[in-house]
UniProtKB/TrEMBL annotation:
GO terms for biological process: proteolysis. Residues 30-317 form the Peptidase M14 domain. The lineage of its organism: Eukaryota, Haptista, Haptophyta, Prymnesiophyceae, Isochrysidales. CDD domains: M14_REP34-like (cd06231). InterPro entries: AstE_AspA_cat (IPR055438), Peptidase_M14 (IPR000834). Its cofactor is Zn(2+). It comes from Emiliania huxleyi (strain CCMP1516). SUPFAM superfamilies: Zn-dependent exopeptidases. Keywords: Hydrolase, Metal-binding, Zinc. Belongs to the peptidase M14 family. GO terms for molecular function: hydrolase activity, acting on ester bonds; metallocarboxypeptidase activity; zinc ion binding. It comes from the Eukaryota. This is Peptidase M14 domain-containing protein.
Length: 317
């Protein structure tokens, strides 16, 4: 039997008091400025680094410039080049999504700069990054709010993507993690917030956390060869998550090695924001005994480069 979440009454959705109690229970645990913004400084010579918004915060005590949102784009943006979007830190606590995006920018091969327009948003949810939270400060999951822009984080990114002079986005790689905290903290919090009932065994319907890397494709546009190329690239860096005994990863059936599919637009996922011809959401498992922070970052970089090399190798531009 699961222990009731520390905030709220089981079976009753949260109101303003519970959301305020939850916010009060969070705390800053690391620095967005030191970990992200300072690393953007060295990129100015090679890229255009632009602020595309800022989080307003839940109170006047939070100055608007505390969490500015930055994008990094290749210089010489051209309508003749295919356009690529890379996003990290949509869930702020998923560290390698942020650091992997930054590592990609700092090690970006010239062949990609020459062939693609690249737009990278390394930390979509900076408050979540600092507090190591899945939600934003209003207890809203940014990665379920891209259908309607119902979080500040998603609204700002939607507006940024729409403002770009792009007829069609070719690729979107959205960098994520699946961690033990998903099972221990974030799923119980979601059940409490939404007043959801537990299963017959008194549990939170949590599947086993997969040990390894996997990707989530779009069930309406799965692009299996593209997803396979991403998996093959990551195999050189780290292990791929096996399915469970039922043939599933996090409750969804695998469609090929290391690949499951979701209806990304219907669920309001970030992977839908650009309506890219090829999209994938990466998931690494940083709590694996076979992984490290650097391996997770390297896996995210391998996923991006594998995706772009697939397009070049197949002549898809």
């Amino acid at each position: 039997m699961a222990t009731p979440y520390r905030i709220g009454t089981p079976g009753t959705p949260w109101g303003d008091k519970e959301r305020a109690d939850w916010l009060a229970s969070t705390e800053v645990q690391r620095s967005y400025t030191a970990d992200v913004l300072d690393k953007l400084t060295a990129l100015h010579d090679r890229f255009e680094v632009r602020e595309y918004g800022a989080l307003s915060g839940p109170s006047k005590a939070w100055p608007r410039d505390r969490y500015p949102l930055f994008s990094v784009r290749t210089k010489g943006w051209s309508a003749a080049k295919p356009s690529v979007l890379v996003t990290g830190g949509v869930h702020g606590y998923e560290t390698s999504g942020v650091q992997g995006a930054l590592q990609f920018l700092h090690t970006l091969p010239d062949r990609f700069v020459e062939r693609f327009n690249l737009l990278v948003c390394p930390c979509v949810s900076p408050w979540g990054y600092e507090t190591i939270q899945r939600w934003n400060a209003f207890a809203v999951d940014p990665n379920r709010s891209f259908a309607d822009g119902s979080s500040e984080e998603s609204k700002a990114l939607i507006e940024l993507v729409a403002s770009m002079e792009v007829e069609r986005w070719l690729v979107h790689v959205d960098l994520h993690e699946t961690t033990d905290a998903d099972k221990l903290e974030f799923r119980p919090a979601k059940f409490a917030r939404d007043g959801l009932a537990l299963d017959a065994a008194g549990a939170y319907f949590v599947s086993a956390i997969p040990d390894g890397f996997y990707v989530v494709g779009d069930s309406l546009n799965p692009q299996p060869s593209f997803q396979a190329a991403v998996i093959d690239a990551v195999k050189r860096v780290t292990h791929i998550a096996p399915p469970d005994e039922a043939g599933n990863i996090i409750g969804s059936p695998i469609v090929q090695e290391g690949v499951i599919n979701y209806p990304v637009k219907e669920l309001g996922l970030c992977a839908s924001v650009a309506a890219a011809a090829y999209c994938t959401t990466t998931e690494v498992y940083p709590d694996s005994p076979r992984a490290s922070d650097q391996i997770c970052n390297d896996a995210q970089v391998a996923a991006i480069t594998g995706a772009l090399d697939f397009l070049l190798n197949e002549g898809i531009t």
